[in-house]
Design brief:
The complex is a heterodimer. Chain A is of the alpha+beta class. Chain A has two domains: about 240 residues, Rossmann fold (3-Layer(aba) Sandwich); about 130 residues, OB fold (Dihydrolipoamide Acetyltransferase, E2P) (Beta Barrel), CATH 2.40.50. In chain A, the strands form five sheets. Chain A has a six-stranded mixed beta sheet with strand order 6-7-8-3-9-10, sandwiched between helices. In chain A, strand 12 and strand 13 form a beta hairpin. In chain A, helix 4 crosses helix 5. The radius of gyration of chain A is 25 Å and the shape is elongated. Chain A starts with a helix and ends with a strand. Chain B folds into two domains: about 60 residues, no CATH class; about 160 residues, MetI-like (MetI-like fold, Orthogonal Bundle), CATH 1.10.3720. Helices cover about 80% and strands about 0% of the residues of chain B. Chain B starts with a helix and ends with a helix. In chain B, helix 4 packs across helix 7. Chain B is globular and about 70 Å long. Chain B has 13 helices and no strands. Chain B is mainly alpha-helical. Classes of the chains: A alpha+beta, B mainly alpha. At the A-B interface, strand 6 and helix 4 of A face helix 8 and helix 9 of B.
Chain lengths: ~400, ~270
Amino acid sequence: MSATKFPTASPTASPAASATAPGPVAVPRRAGTQIRLTGVTKDYGLASPAVAGVSLTIEPGEFMTLLGPSGSGKTTTLNLIAGFETLTAGSIAFNGADVSRLPPHKRNLGMLFQNYALFPHLTVAQNVAYPLRERRLPKPEIARRVSEVLELVQLTGRDGTYPAQLSGGQQQRVALARAIVFDPSALLLDEPLGALDRNLRSTLQLEIRRIHREVGSTFVFVTHDQEEAMNLSDRIALFNDGRIEQVGTPEALYQTPETLFTARFLGDSTVFELPYGDGAGAAWEDEVWAVDPATVSARVVAGSRAALVVRPEDVRIAADRSAVPSGANAVSATIRDVEYMGAYRTAVLALGRGGVAGRARLDALESDLGAGQSVTAWWRVDRQRLVAA
Amino acid sequence: MRAPRRSLRRDRGVDPVPWWQKIFVAVVGLYFILPTLFVIPMSFSTASTFQFPPRGFSLKLYENFFTNQVWLTSLRNSVLVALLAALLATVAGTAAALGLHRLTGRMARFARTLLMVSIVTPAIVLAVAVYISFLKWHLVGTVTGYVLAHAAIGVPFVLVSVTSALGGFDPRLLRASASLGAPPFRTFLRVTMPLISRGILTGAIFAFVTSFDEVVIALFLRAPGFQTLPVQMYNSVTVEIDPTIAASSSLVVTAVTAVCLVLQFVGRRRKS
């Protein structure tokens, strides 16, 4: 259905062909474009390159999020895909065709910006029609597509309004309509929700997911907000210092981090930094913990620094060692504070002699716990993970 | 001391402008329009020499102006030169402003200063330099010569006004436009130009007016077959003592004022 709604228009097709050529009607949803980055590098001549040898394949129709702290190279990578920056080394291919040297206006990509980047001198309808006029579509076709896409983003009837008269959320909807109306090969989203307040952000997150489903095109989303990344993505590429730290589904990144950076960036975790031999045990302070080889990341090199991480929901509190089930790993702890989180409470812990910070999610039965108490924290061996530090 | 207090007052917004500021503004305003207050009454005088206050009332001087081929030809020349010079200065100045806007660093500053040089160079120095080179290139007394020289002194005005208009222009719109499939020149036509049109228009008018009343270079470049209105005015006072200059000055002042008022009106309507 959406295939006939947004006929495929390639940038190389003649105007007449792109205006009338029907989409692949037999396919229920249009296949997106595959974006392949190979050794992509951008060096501004500073101390370290902004992007250093990133290789990543974004599958057709996939919702891929480039996640990372500011300055990690995720936005530069997006700009390289868009063609706003030139590659220092490496190559970028869309569906196997090298686009490394193609200027941005020939790449046929939709783009959503954090500040919306609507043209203030044009009305909503004129903004949305902009890419269609650039492609010389006939007037009736333009009018039809504009009204269709405005309906898709629920802005019917605002055609004649100027961007300045709209709220932030409405402006971003217009920008979204403008970015998908010409049926781009992929949609690039550069922190599009960063300027919106919390409620609006979650509404628009749902909106973006819905439109991704309906349009079926490849989405590349940049954000520093891990929650947003978890909610939206099929897969996340976590950036650190110009490199990809780890790529995977949100579950994979959360459940099986390979490095300490990944474990810390996605969700809370209690971290014990320790040396790890190739044995079955890990020693930390006075404790010797059992290690299940299945929970050791392949990136942990025997003999080098490693870290044992446990998620707060996996940490249990016991009154003393005798209450810890056999086979579980335990450490003595002091409760620093108990935080009320609404649906549950969290104990902030100081662990071991050094007082390493840790967190444990409490259930209702543990309501008698309070700050200052000495307890024992424990977790099941299969709920911990050993990662590269 | 005064500056912060003033800005505080502006913030409050409801405070009236103090009386001494009103007087100050009135005096400055009067100072600017004083010459006009003498010239316009004089242009309706019946006298055949310069006299103030004017005697009687007649349109004789205007009749002189509109029936004398010398005045009319020089007016036509001036308009032609000013239009072409303004066009050239606007294209060059806008291009320079766009280019320099994206550049930073010593070379960009140097280029900007170089383009602004004609504003601070004494007119007579420019005029002599233009005269000597144009003699060699056989451009003295030609429309091309006038246009080139006047465009050069018009460029700084366009550069300044377009640069200030670009200050309010969001460069991210250029990326948005490119992502939507528009090549750079189409982006300029559909996005940049409409958004900085006030700056371009202001610069163009300044360039036009600068050329229209330029007299020093024009004196050097004049030829028996081609001279501009300011040169003819200069002649009429120094050679002929012809009060028709009062009529021509009044016409010029009125025309320029009318253009500015229309622009003000158009600008305000578009904003609202």
